[in-house]
Amino acid sequence: MINSFHRKKIKKKKPIKEKNMKLSCSERRVITISLCLIFCLSNSILVIASPAKDLCLPDQRDALWEFKNEFYIQRPDWRMSETATEKWRNNTDCCSWDGISCDPKTGVVVELNLEYSNLNGPLRSNSSLFRLQHLQTLKLGHNNLSGTLPDSIGNLKYLRVLSLRRCKFIGKIPSSLGNLSYLSELDLSFNDLTGEIPDWMGNLKYLKVLRLRYCNLFGKIPSAFGNLSNLAVLSLSDNDLTSERPDSMGNLNRLTDFQLMLLNMSSLTYINLGFNQFRGINLKISSTLHFPSAMGTLILSSCNILEFPKFLQNQTSLYDLDISANQIEGQVPEWLWRLPTLRYVNISHSSFNGFEGPADVIQRCGELDTLDISSNTFQNPFPLLPRSTSDFFSSDNQFSGDIPREICEIFNLNMFVLSNNKFIGSIPRCFKNLSLSVLHLRNNSLSGVFQEESISVVLGSLDIGHNFFSGELPKSLINCSRLEFLNVEDNIINGTFPLWLRLLPNLQILVLRSNEFYGPISSPKDSVSFPKLRIFDISDNRFTGVLPSEYFVGWTAMSLVHPAMSSVVNIVDSMMSI
Questions:
Q1: Can you give the pLDDT at residue 259?
Q2: What is the pLDDT of residues 557-566, one digit of tens each?
Q3: Would you tell me how many other CB atoms lie within 10 Å of the CB of residue 105?
Q4: Between β-strands 72-73 and 119-120, what pairing exists: parallel, antiparallel or unpaired?
Q5: Which of 348, 462, 464, 465 sits between 20 and 30 A of 252, alpha carbons compared?
Q6: How wide is the angle at C-alpha 343 spanned by C-alphas 339 and 346, nearest 5°?
C-alpha cells in the first residue's frame, strides 16, 4: 500500500526534460576532477598567501642581532662551513636560528648556545645579551671573549646552565654569580682567572656540576662546599690549591666524580685525598701527572681509582703510600718495591691478585715496615717479606697451604694477621722467637695441638677462632702478661676450665665458646678473680656444676658500669675483623 502510494505521488510531479540534464559518465568524471583541482588549488593559494606568525618576540630578535654584531667573527682557513651566527638572517623568526631555543608559549629566548662560533672581542657589561632576561642555558665556550667576565652576568637570574669554558677570561670570578640561585651547572674551566675559590659558591644549593679546571685559582677548598648537597661532579684540577680538604665535604653523598690535581708543588711533601665518607667518588688521575719527587706521604684511599698510579715510579722520597679501597685489578707492579724509602704500603680492599716479578720481589724493599694487602684476591705464592717488616696484614685473601716458615726470619715482626684465608697445618713453633704482639689466624683450616712452643710471651691479642685446633689450651699463655684479647672459639679444644688465666693481669676479653671444654668452672680451693675482664663467653661447651653467687665478686671491671664500655665493644669488633 505504502509503496504504491509513493509511486502515485512521483508520477504526478512535473516531468523533467531529460535531454538537457542528462550527462555522460565521462562528462561527470571530468567535472569531478576539475572541482577537486580547483578546491586543492584554492586551499594551496590560501595557505601560501597566509603569512606565518613568528614565534620570536621582536625585542628578543633585536637583542640577539645586536649581540652578534658586538663581535668580530674570524673563521679559520680550515673551517669552511659557516658558524651559527653567520647563518642568522634578520627579519626572520629568531627561534629558528642555529643555537637558539625559545619558550613555545611565550616566545622568549631560553637557550643560547654559541660554542665554537669564533666570536672575537670582549663581553661588555652593557652587552645586549643581558636583555635576554629569561635565559636558562647560556653556552659561549671555546670563543675568544677576552677581558674580564662582567658583573652583569648575575642579572640573568633564571640561568640553570652557564658554560664559559675556554673563553680566555681574566680576573676574578664575579661575585654576582652568587645571584644565580637556580644554577645547576657551572663551567669556567680553562680561563685565566685569579684569586681564591669564593665562599659564596657554597650557597648555590641546586648546583650539580662545578668545573673550575685550569683557572690559576689558589688557596683552600671552601668549607662552604659542604653545603652543596646536590653536587655530583667537582673538577678543581690543575690549579694552585692546597691539598687540605675541609671535613664538611664528607656531606657530599651524591658526589660521583671528583678531580683534583695540584700544580707548583715543589715544596709539597704530604697529600691526603682520601674520601672515606663519600659514596662512589671517582678521582681521575692523569697519566702525565707529575708530583714533586720529594713527596713523602700520598693517601688516595676510597677514590675509585681503576689503575695503579704510574707517576709513583718517580717518587724516590715516598715513604707512606695508601691507595686502599679502590678498584684496581691485576698485579702489583714490580717497580713499586724499588722505591728506596718506601716504609708503609696499604693496598687493601681492592682487587689485586698477585705480585709482578719473582717471589722475593718485596724483599728488595729493604726499608718496608708495614704492608697491608688484606681484602684482595691474592693467591700463592705467599710473598717473601723483608726483615725490616714490623706489621703485616693479609686477611681476607685466598692464600693456602702451610704458613711459610720464612716468617720466622722476620725477628721484628710485631703484628701478623692472616685471618680468613685457606691455610692448613699448624702454627710454626718458631713463632715463639718472634716479638709478636698481635697474632690473628682466625677462620682458616689450621689443625693439630696448639703447641706451647708457638707462643710469643709479648702477645697482646691472640685470635685462632674458627679453625680445627685440638688438645688443651697451652699453659704457656700464662707467661703472656700483656695479653688483653684471647679468642679460641669454634675449635676442638678440650680440657677443664683454664682457671689459671685469672693470673693474666691485663686480660679483658676471653672467648672460649664452641669447643670441648668440660667440668665445673669454679673451684672450692682457688679464688676466681678476673680484675680487668669485661667480656666473657664460654657458651656451647660441656661445662657442668653450679655457679655460686659469689663467683663473680672478684670480677670488678665487669661489675662496674664503665664509661668506656661502648668503646671496648668497638675494639672487640675491630679485633675480630682483623
A1: 66
A2: 765 544 444 4
A3: 7
A4: antiparallel
A5: 348
A6: 95
Residue type, 412: N
C-alpha separations of 261 from 186, 220, 234 in Å: 19, 13, 12
Pairing of strands 509-511, 485-487: parallel
Grid cell locating 191: 680561563
Contacts of 461 (CB under 8 A, 6+ apart): 437, 438, 439, 440, 483, 484, 485, 575
Does residue 530 contact residue 554 with C-beta atoms inside 8 Å?
Answer: yes
What CATH class has 399-578?
alpha beta
Which cell goes with 200? 659564596
Q: Which residues make beta-bridge pairs with 112?
A: 100, 138
Around Cβ 424, how many Cβ atoms within 10 Å? Answer: 16
Q: Where are the alpha helices (DSSP H) in 69-113?
A: none
Say what the pLDDT of residue 303 is: 75
Locate 306 and state its grid cell: 681503576
- Over the range 193-215, which residues count as b (16 or more CB within 10 Å of their CB) and which as e? beebbbeebbebeebbbbbbbbb
Domain ranges of the chain: 399-578
Q: CB-based burial of residue 331 (10 Å sphere; 0-12 exposed, 13-18 middle, 19+ buried)?
A: middle
pLDDT at 560: 58
Neighbours of 532 (CB within 10 A): 15
Which string of DSSP letters, residue by residue, matches 460-524? SEEE--SSEEEEEPPGGGGG-TT--EEE--SSEEEEE--GGGGG-TT--EEE--SSEEEE-S--S
Unique residue bearing C-alpha cell 668440660: 518
Q: How confident is the model at residue 420 (pLDDT cuts 50, 70, 90)?
A: very high
Q: How far is CA 287 from CA 4, 123, 332, 356, in A?
A: 104, 36, 17, 20
Compute the distance between CA of residue 484 and CA of residue 438 in angstroms, rounded to an integer.
Answer: 10
pLDDT tens column, 376-410: 999 999 999 999 999 999 999 999 999 999 999 99
CB atoms within 10 A of CB 171: 14
Q: For residues 455 and 433, is the Cβ–Cβ distance under 8 A?
A: no
Mean pLDDT of 429-447: 94
